[in-house]
Predict the structure of Transcriptional regulator MraZ.
Amino acid sequence: MFAGEYLCKVDEKGRFIVPSPIREQVESEGRAVVFMKGPEQSILIYSIKEWEKVLERSKATLDEDQSRLFMHFVVSEAGTSEIDKTGRILIPGRLRKLVPLDEDQEIILVGLYHRMEVWNPSEWRRYISRSEDRYEQDMSKILNLL
């Protein structure tokens, strides 16, 4: 399970060092990950193992027309990358453009159970700020889970 929030520096080639807790989990399931367009201005990241589960669920639940749409608009947009020997991973170029980088070239990597999200730090803060009212309303239900 992926959890936590990490500030990562992106180099001029679009690579970032994967934080060790995340890297250990990804490497336990293979060195590759799948990147895809996420909500708002974010990128979703799945381990290969989790991505295969997504594909299996799509086969089991979508009819033929829905499956074609899924393949055309989701799978065709996905890009893969592997963690290199120094622990860096390359964000595919066409997807990197979805997360506009500020001058400091940093991203926020957020662990969300079975996947991760990549955000521009400013956009992440705006998203959290917009979501605070909903969070306050649902907090009692959330606390009951703990």
The radius of gyration is 16 Å. Residues 2-145 form a domain with the Chemotaxis protein chec fold (CATH 3.40.1550.20).
